[in-house]
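Listing S7. Sequence submitted for prediction.
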Amino acid sequence: MRADVEGVRYADDQVRETIKRTFERCGYLLDPHSAIGYLGITGRRETEQVGIFLATAHPAKFAEIVEPIVGRSIPKPKPLAEALARPRPILHIDATLESVKETLGG
């Protein structure tokens, strides 16, 4: 598997620059996670191999990050706006394996 899969990492500044550059050059708006996937393919020009990355979220989900980068507001699709408006249930448990097991019913 190591011959086929390679992990990479990028700094926040690299991710921001990729979002900006991709939007300016292509008109495509990346979310931060997808920008990392895109960088994973385009950031390594050592081979002529073709790659695929999958966009994982709508950029509006990360509006506080993406909007300042591209200098405009990003409209939220109705399903995303509705999901973000819902209360987020948070379950606090002790940081122990036993608590996790109990919470999961096992």
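Caption to Listing S7: primary sequence and predicted structure tokens for the chain studied. The chain has a mean pLDDT of 90. Residues 12-103 form a domain with the Rossmann fold fold (CATH 3.40.50.1100).
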